Amino acid sequence: MAGKRQASRLRIDADIMRAARSQLTEVGATGLSLREIAREVGMVSSAVYRYVDSRDALLTRLIIEAYDALGGNVERASADHADSTDLDRWTAACLATRSWAVENPHEYLLLYGSPVPGYAAPSDTVDPGVRPTLALARIVGDAAAADRLQPPNVASPTEPLDDEVARMIEYVDIDITAAHAAAFLIAWTQMFGLVSFELTNQTRGIVDSHQQFFEFAVRATGTAIGLR
């Protein structure tokens, strides 16, 4: 009997998450409503609170789910190209970021778009949130460990950026120079900027071949880091 109750609970929980993702697509994160989700899954509005504590708790679950999906996508691409050149492995991992974002634009914008008014992400979103970044950093770290990392094409940062770049090195936990870390920071932020510009149509009338331009750009930034 307990097994049936647990199975029923898991099914209802999955229905709630499907309805939440549907709402995210239709009305965005700011329009997310537990009342509407309850209606969609055939529950009275009070019953949904047996599964989700609040709208913010549901947002947190959606965020963690999305980060894990994106992180897993990038990690698999990196692993699948472990025997490729460092630059090809970097490019594949970056392309995996873009492909997930293009297939899941609303989830991507939940992560990297405008903040949701009144919502503050709790600390349990941090570990899932760093998965894509750490997957990319490991590619650079592996190249450095194997003595394949070439000199970057950026200068070593000076004050006050040197402290910030030192934090980046500590954060990703790889043994690279400050100049390499600065180049990685540029490449990392530019990659997400390219994806965000594409999804929000900021490059309309300029870029039509988005995937080709994206690949061209991430290969350029990967080369700037010192990947070959």
Short description:
This protein is an all-alpha fold and 228 residues long. It has helices at 2-27, 34-41, 55-80, 86-103, 105-112, 126-145, 161-172, 178-199, 210-225.
Describe this structure in words.
By secondary structure, the chain is mainly α. The longest helix is centred in the N-terminal third of the chain and has 26 residues. It is elongated.
What distinguishing features does this structure have?
single chain, about 230 residues, mainly alpha, Arc Repressor Mutant, subunit A, Tetracycline Repressor, domain 2, 9 helices, about 70% helix
Question: Can you tell me the CATH class of the largest domain?
Answer: Mainly Alpha
Radius of gyration: 20 Å
Number of helical stretches of at least 4 residues = 9
Mean residue pLDDT: 95
Q: What can be said about the biggest beta sheet?
A: none
The SS-based structural class is mainly alpha
Identify low-pLDDT runs.
Answer: none
Amino- and carboxy-terminal Cα gap: 59 Å
Helix content: 55-70%
Q: Work out the count of structural domains.
A: 2
What is the element string, with H for helices and E for strands?
HHHHHHHHH
CATH homologous superfamily (4th level) name of the largest domain: Tetracycline Repressor, domain 2
CATH fold title of the largest domain: Tetracycline Repressor, domain 2
Strand content: under 5%
Question: How many extended strands?
Answer: 0
What is the global morphology?
Answer: elongated
CATH architecture field of the largest domain: Orthogonal Bundle
